[in-house]
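Submission checklist for the structure archive. All mandatory fields must be present; incomplete records are returned to the submitter.

[x] Identifier: Small ribosomal subunit biogenesis GTPase RsgA
[x] Organism: Streptomyces glebosus
[x] Residue count: 391
[x] Sequence attached
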Amino acid sequence: MFDLEFSAAHPLTPYGWDDGFARSFTPFAGQGLVPGRIVRVDRGRVDAVVADGDGIRTVLADTALVATRDPMRVPCTGDWAVLDLENGRSGDHVDGVVRALLPRRTAFVRSTSSKRSEGQVLATNIDHIVICVSLADQLDLGRIERFLALAMSGAGDAGPLHDSAVTDEGGAQPVVVLTKADLAGDPAGLAHLLEDAEATAPGVPVLAVSSETGDGIDVLAAVLAGSTSVLLGQSGAGKSTLANALLGERLQRVQAIRDRDGKGRHTTTTRDLRALPGGGVLIDTPGLRGVGMWDAESGLARTFSEVEALAEECRFHDCAHRSEPGCAVQEAVECGELSARRLESYRKLQRENQRIVAKTDARLRAEIRRDWKQKQALGRHLMERKRGPQR
């Protein structure tokens, strides 16, 4: 029988097991079931770490009993699963079956590239979201803002979430990591890039690291120690090389970027959770070519907090920040307090997020349609007044 009492010496503690998860597991106690953390998902089966005496072992479990058509509720790397290792064997190489998933605390979710308006959960129960951006190419501030908006949204409707565990701050702490810092040129140039990234991510730690020289790796390792962290970024951002540097051994295969277009190649093909030598665990993910918005309203508000604060000072509460009189946002752009690039990025991500939400929310679709009709009617009215009475 699994020991429910939590202690710092528990075999699963290095993998994130704590008193909160122990309480969530209580309803399953006494049924011959054990908790395990999913470290890898592959075609209807998962690898999970479970307690084995004073140590741990990795088991292979089938997910047929928790199979669902809802992509937000399928087992994901980082989940804590309820495993039946006594009665769940379905083959010579399968150790058991997943009976349930414990409530998730946090999750990183993006919209899929399909036309079905579905979310995809990339990692769960995470404490740090490491946004990797390569300095081998021009720094893409818009991409940083996109990742931050999703990271700061916490979880959205990411399956079986434990509401009390998700903080007002969004649950997981984002960290922006500028990789391949050795390719940034002189120190003055690197300092300038750091300033740009810090201005784009107010209140978020921004670090420059080089897996080649080792610069900054110890600082990042100290930040991530004792927590669950996920590495996110596009192909070629240096995630696998960074993962190897943090793990202290070559566990992830790495490839050079393509010479003909500078694009990265997919090195990591699955999302794998591994233990860090300094404590905590790390989830490496495949490169992301597209990162679509998904229920990111709260994250956008936090990522663009200065725009939201300026909008409160606009004369009209429904100001679009374009040509309306008394627009505090446009005044800030004109005087240089707010960059036009940042405002346009805010608008773009807001529009995209609204489209995604509207596809799944009938009431919001109706509100958008009603607002559009009102604006059309107002436009016709103003045009008629401008033209004057028709004879």
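[x] Structure attached
Curator remark: The radius of gyration is 24 Å. Residues 110 and 145 are 14 Å apart (CA to CA).
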